[in-house]
Amino acid sequence: MPIVELHLLQGYDDGVKARLGKGLTDAVRFVLPAAPEAVTVMVHEMAAANYYRGGEMRQPAPALPDPTRIVHDYLSAMERRDLPAAQAMLAEGFTMQFPGAAPMTTLEELIAWSKPRYAFVRKTYERFDAMPGNGGAIVYCFGTLHGEWLDGTAFEGIRFIDRFEIAGGKLIRQDVWNDMAEAKAQA
Amino acid sequence: MPIVELHLLQGYDDGVKARLGKGLTDAVRFVLPAAPEAVTVMVHEMAAANYYRGGEMRQPAPALPDPTRIVHDYLSAMERRDLPAAQAMLAEGFTMQFPGAAPMTTLEELIAWSKPRYAFVRKTYERFDAMPGNGGAIVYCFGTLHGEWLDGTAFEGIRFIDRFEIAGGKLIRQDVWNDMAEAKAQA
Amino acid sequence: MPIVELHLLQGYDDGVKARLGKGLTDAVRFVLPAAPEAVTVMVHEMAAANYYRGGEMRQPAPALPDPTRIVHDYLSAMERRDLPAAQAMLAEGFTMQFPGAAPMTTLEELIAWSKPRYAFVRKTYERFDAMPGNGGAIVYCFGTLHGEWLDGTAFEGIRFIDRFEIAGGKLIRQDVWNDMAEAKAQA
Amino acid sequence: MPIVELHLLQGYDDGVKARLGKGLTDAVRFVLPAAPEAVTVMVHEMAAANYYRGGEMRQPAPALPDPTRIVHDYLSAMERRDLPAAQAMLAEGFTMQFPGAAPMTTLEELIAWSKPRYAFVRKTYERFDAMPGNGGAIVYCFGTLHGEWLDGTAFEGIRFIDRFEIAGGKLIRQDVWNDMAEAKAQA
Amino acid sequence: MPIVELHLLQGYDDGVKARLGKGLTDAVRFVLPAAPEAVTVMVHEMAAANYYRGGEMRQPAPALPDPTRIVHDYLSAMERRDLPAAQAMLAEGFTMQFPGAAPMTTLEELIAWSKPRYAFVRKTYERFDAMPGNGGAIVYCFGTLHGEWLDGTAFEGIRFIDRFEIAGGKLIRQDVWNDMAEAKAQA
Amino acid sequence: MPIVELHLLQGYDDGVKARLGKGLTDAVRFVLPAAPEAVTVMVHEMAAANYYRGGEMRQPAPALPDPTRIVHDYLSAMERRDLPAAQAMLAEGFTMQFPGAAPMTTLEELIAWSKPRYAFVRKTYERFDAMPGNGGAIVYCFGTLHGEWLDGTAFEGIRFIDRFEIAGGKLIRQDVWNDMAEAKAQA
Fold first, then answer.
1. Which of A60, B100, C15, F4 could be A9's S-S partner, Cβ–Cβ 3.0 to 4.6 Å?
2. CATH code where residue A130 lies
3. Do A50 and E42 touch (CB under 8 A)?
4. Both B134 and B152 in a single domain?
5. Domain limits at A44?
6. Each residue of F60-105: pLDDT tens digit?
């Protein structure tokens, strides 16, 4: 039965409102055992001239980008080695943790590190999970890797998972786990 | 500025309302760039006699357990090898995916599989991430493993991540990634 | 989907709130094609100290009696010829219209008029319909009559319908239609 | 003092909202002894993009026709013997109960039954009463009949009442009472 | 934390809504020790077709003029001796009380009274304070007077305060205090 | 028609809520020409566990004292020369402005200044006007003075007005105007 009312300044497009409608429904169903159709969300929009804090009008800030999209775009840029595009998505202080590597902070380091390990790698995604966290967003994605070892033999079906932290629309941390060492050990 | 009003049947304890208050705040901040103190949540509670759907009164269903707690309890039971306790937390159709293993469905299988791999293992958690998903909850936890190999040498600092799906308060799927193979390869 | 919120002063019992919950649901479904379970009613109660009109507190007035009950009680009193009880339920200016009779205003008139028509009559109710109207309530009830003619022969299954107007908890008008003349003509 | 708030999807015309405003006011005044001007109804409309159930948008369904109008149109069509128009307003399973007749289900039956009883009949309405009921609407109308007997003599002032049940915008049941037999008996 | 929601018929311009937003914020902060930014006001506007009292639509009345502006305009008209303009702002029954004078009711009286006292006087305002009161508005303004005595010598810095009562947009009472006698005594 | 809803943390007594109810009604009527009984205020109270800002619970702060009472108490203490009581009501930085005097900051100064002017003085109040202002409250009071000159002759009916600014429950500024000089000049 829970009913959620969200009061919002006018000016967000339907996609933003749909993300809010979905997110608030999920937030309720995370705690209460309500069937989906038992959770109602109503978004009440107000003109700026109808909202006052401390007696002053306020302006709506632009909505945040979808963090799943940010991660997806970043991983695509890396796969096609479009380093400028990827670099533009990194926040100041970005760090990466890959299996068996020391923490890295630049894409150049990462590429140098991967060079002796495989010729190329592509991701097949099973699923993205995104949630609010750490004052921004946390995104997980997992699935399998396929590609080519340095000797030209192909590999596929190697499980991986990536975890990203996003703040202010930029990536600030990436953690990677996968079964590459396991695959090599079994090879 | 967003203000969220949640209308709820009476009878949930303060902990449940705090989880809802936090979750709804996060859901808004996931989409809108509002500072935390700019997001207000008001929970309006109603006696059952004050709420009608189709002209009929409804009763509140008990809140769902905190999925982070479920995962934490399960992993603790497994560490201390309390199989009955762990077993009680598994849903019908539970499956596990560990690195380099075929999918497993019983705890006995898992124990048999791990026996030739290490003497014991303990987890140090860096963080739990939980979110609504798949009609239930998804929980990630990650950190490092320490323990003993079969030859009695100790290991520590091996990165791991676990992903769980929970439905109806029970675990239905576990996926595990870690750097054990990497650690062995480097040893 | 319609959601109805009713703001009310505290102090009405659950029966009153259930009548309001049902009535508001019906009022919505009278105009909109919503399934019953798609119409939600929330009753928000306030202490008198939380409600101000013109800056002044107000006290809740007692709920009105159920008009169906009033009509039922009146007709029962008449059937058992408890004239004082029936009389007490009539408003100043009460008038009755029976088939083939001039309008009557007193129970004594009614009894005198019925004496040459039948020995006694009892009602079997098929249904009561009640609704707001004329600043008060309107109640219809219909079903069949059974009883005895003056010559001692029994009758039954004679269709009737009564219409009542109620104001201030008292009956102000009664209109009666039935098939008695039809039955006699066919006899 | 009661205040009613109705949350509704956008798209209903002012006539529909006025019917809802009136109906909700009546529903409150049916239970609480509030003066009309003490009952406030506010209709809050939302764009479809601002309303979510189960996280999904919904579309508003067209409002139901006014049941009083349906009955009025049906009775007019019957008076002028426009059988196709009248027939189109009947639901599957429609039944009629007239004084002294067996239940009838077709207009042809009704016309055959009335032919030996009067040349024609017209209704003068005193009042229509309509209310929600039986998952649809119930309409009463009453007043007097005038017309011509088969022998060409005129009649007038014969009281009648009709009761209709409406579902899905169509008539499903009609019950008729009147003083025709009484009038004939007195003639 | 207090949140104020104001439900209003549509049609007031942004200036009116800003005055309401400011006034409601002040009204809360007059009683509760909330920081300004902790008080939120939301104005919910409704089309006339969405608001019913006693089941009837209502039309919005024009907003009241800002009483500070009325007082300011009146005092300006008096300073430039535009008596018709000033007169037009006075309610029936207007009375004035000046220091050392009997109550006066006409502008002609006032001018006659002031003639033997000074050649002219101008006001420098420090501040206007306006508030609801006596079913209308009360406005205070204070500051200093400058001008010329009858003998042609200038004066300045003489403190004054005026108090006005306003009803229906017109001045009904004026009370004046100042240090003119003090200034003369010290001269 | 305006309807005001105030959402508040639980714990304020009825007197505080009545002050809020009155103040919000006045704030609306200051701008809109609504009859008093056309303005409704509903106070919705919430337990602390039902209110979250930034996902955190908040506690209600004690209501502010009535500023009219503060002024009244201060002026009474001064009349009976209870300097410690009066002193306790002054904020750091308190200043006073009396007719024909330089600004003063201590009660001792004030008493020294008044000594050569009159033997004693008492106030008869016509009215107090209080309003929010300058982040606190502004209080006006006016009426007449009576007392005794130094030569023992009595005076009465001398008009006065005091203006106070209050912040944090303490007096920060007092401005006084009166007709004492006028009275002396006329004597």
1. A60
2. 3.10.450.50
3. yes
4. yes
5. 3-57
6. 889 999 999 999 999 999 999 999 999 999 999 999 999 999 999 9
